[in-house]
UniProtKB/TrEMBL annotation:
This is FecR protein domain-containing protein. Keywords: Membrane, Transmembrane, Transmembrane helix. One of its GO terms (molecular function) is sigma factor antagonist activity. The keyword Transmembrane helix applies. The chain crosses the membrane at residues 94-114. It comes from the Bacteria. Residues 120-212 form the FecR protein domain.
Length: 339
């Protein structure tokens, strides 16, 4: 067996395994849409571009048939195999197969590079940084944040893994800029906006221009697509964990990207959101002792780094107490729950 035939055989097995997995997930999604199934599907699809390509291929076959739901899993497998066998030779090979004639090291390296984003920008506690992208866009990356950027022909894409980023997107009508953050999808051609990912919650605030937000499609095979919400300057919208759509647009409780000035501004903002910011910028651990404390609304402004002064003022204007846990964490809780 030549090295070329070896890599072709190995890649064929890999391709078949991916297609089998894609079919199983497509059938699972056609039968149920529980949060666990959707979460597992999203993670699998994002893990490898080949997963997305295989799933879209399977979906196109299933969508072209009027018998969706009438066939069993084994019947669908035969249907997919019959369609795929007739088209496999005309399909574009995966990246590793394209490099199969090269040395083993070159093949492995080429496949690895193909999966990497163009750039990854990450920050630590209290750190902020500004980066310039090759298209002229600029990102302000907040503390404890991680964002990946990948540009390709006709597309510009960023994935916010955690934290907060302010996007100043260079206008290019022919190449939209898409931001993915958990289940959220944000699409623009050129504007200024802020994306905040707090666990599975996502908030988008717009400073300039027009931004479209929606829950990203989890079921392309059925053709479902969540309604989009359009935001303009001064408006914000949030996607709660498990929600099917973004919340209706409303005036922002913060002005998009104000934190870039080194100062926090909040208007009628839940204390839980403020504490989340403090946790990312303060070296001293801070926590909420109960949910009632987190739900309290606060209007305030203070410089980043003035955490102690803010906490002292907070306990004088709200029914809160402050104490230090054994590990040094500052705990805020409502007076009734205080130790």
């Amino acid at each position: 067996m030549t090295i070329l035939s070896f890599f072709r055989a190995r890649e064929a097995r890999r391709e078949q395994a991916i297609e089998d997995e894609a079919l199983e997930r497509a059938l699972d999604l056609s039968e149920r849409r529980d949060p666990q199934t959707l979460t597992e599907y999203d993670a699998w699809r994002e893990a490898d571009p080949d997963h997305a390509a295989a799933f879209d291929h399977i979906s196109s076959v299933m969508e072209s048939s009027a018998r969706l739901g009438a066939l069993g899993r084994d019947d669908w497998r035969a249907e997919i195999d019959a369609f795929t066998d007739g088209n496999r030779r005309r399909r574009m090979p995966y990246p590793a197969m394209a490099a199969a004639a090269c040395l083993l090291v070159a093949v492995s390296l080429g496949w690895w590079i193909a999966q990497r984003p163009d750039a990854v920008y990450a920050t630590t506690t209290g750190q902020m940084r500004t980066v310039a992208l090759t298209d002229g866009s600029r990102l302000a990356v907040g503390a404890q944040s991680n964002v990946e950027v990948r540009f390709a022909r006709g597309t510009r894409r960023a994935m916010l893994k955690s934290g907060e980023v302010f996007f100043n997107v260079a206008h290019d009508a022919g190449r939209p800029f898409t931001v993915l953050a958990g289940d959220a999808e944000i699409r623009v051609t050129g504007t200024k906006f802020d994306v905040r990912r707090q666990g599975d919650s996502v908030r988008v605030s717009v400073l300039e221009g027009r931004v479209e937000v929606r829950r990203k499609a989890s079921l392309p095979l059925i053709g479902t697509e969540s309604p989009k919400v359009v935001l303009t300057a001064g408006l914000q919208s949030s996607l709660a964990p498990g929600a099917e759509t973004f919340s209706p647009p409303q005036s922002g409780t913060v002005q998009a990207g104000d934190w870039r000035t080194g100062r926090f501004f909040y208007r009628d903002t839940p204390l839980s959101d403020i504490v989340w910011d403090l946790q990312r910028y303060s070296k001293t651990p801070i926590a909420l002792g109960d949910t009632h404390a987190g739900n309290l609304k606060v209007t305030t402004s203070f410089r980043i780094g003035e955490t102690d002064a803010f906490l002292d003022n907070l306990t004088t204007i709200l029914p809160l107490t402050e104490h230090r846990a054994a590990d040094g964490t500052i705990v805020l809780e409502t007076s009734l729950n205080a130790p």
